[in-house]
Every structure is written in structure tokens, then in C-alpha cells.
Automatic annotation (TrEMBL):
<protein>
    <submittedName>
        <fullName>MoaD/ThiS family protein</fullName>
    </submittedName>
</protein>
<dbReference type="InterPro" id="IPR016155">
    <property type="entry name" value="Mopterin_synth/thiamin_S_b"/>
</dbReference>
<dbReference type="Pfam" id="PF02597">
    <property type="entry name" value="ThiS"/>
</dbReference>
<dbReference type="InterPro" id="IPR003749">
    <property type="entry name" value="ThiS/MoaD-like"/>
</dbReference>
<dbReference type="InterPro" id="IPR012675">
    <property type="entry name" value="Beta-grasp_dom_sf"/>
</dbReference>
Length: 86
């Protein structure tokens, strides 16, 4: 099990109700599933995650299956929902 931090930005921050929180998981999929169950988060949080991009220690996850993305101990996962404007 790796321990690290999930950071939420924009709509992800609003849906999570926090800017950041710890993870304790082996893969990105496990960390996001645990985050979705935390504090009774519902459909809004899951919808934001479904539309978001992810960085793990600054590296884009891209189209890789989240179950195949190993999380490092002490790492940082950035949750980046689509941003308006440019």
C-alpha cells in the first residue's frame, strides 16, 4: 500500500468538498474508488471524476486504465476537471 495525497482542482474541489486528502492505495483506481466512498460523496463527485484528467507526480495518466496506474509512496495525484476558457 502506498500513501500519498490527492489534490482536487476547480469543480473537483467543489465536488470533493476539500482541496486535498490522503490516499492509501496501490493503484489510481483504488484511490479514486475510496475517495468516492468517503463522507457519503455521491453522483456529482463521480461525474466530475469521469470527466477529469489525472496527473501522478506530474506525469499525465492519459488513456491508461486507472487499475494499471501504480501509485508511489509519498506521491501526489492531481484531479483536473475540464476548465472553461483558455
Amino acid at each position: 500500500m502506498a500513501k500519498g495525497t490527492i489534490r482536487y482542482w476547480a469543480a473537483a474541489k467543489a465536488a470533493a468538498g476539500t482541496h486535498e486528502e490522503p490516499y492509501d492505495a496501490v493503484t489510481l483506481d483504488e484511490a479514486l474508488a475510496a475517495a468516492a466512498l468517503r463522507d457519503g460523496r455521491g453522483g456529482d463527485f463521480r461525474r466530475v471524476l469521469d470527466r477529469s484528467s489525472f496527473l501522478v507526480d506530474g506525469d499525465p495518466v492519459g488513456g491508461r486504465p486507472h487499475a494499471s496506474v501504480a501509485l508511489p509512496d509519498g506521491g501526489v495525484v492531481e484531479v483536473l476537471p475540464p476548465f472553461a476558457g483558455g
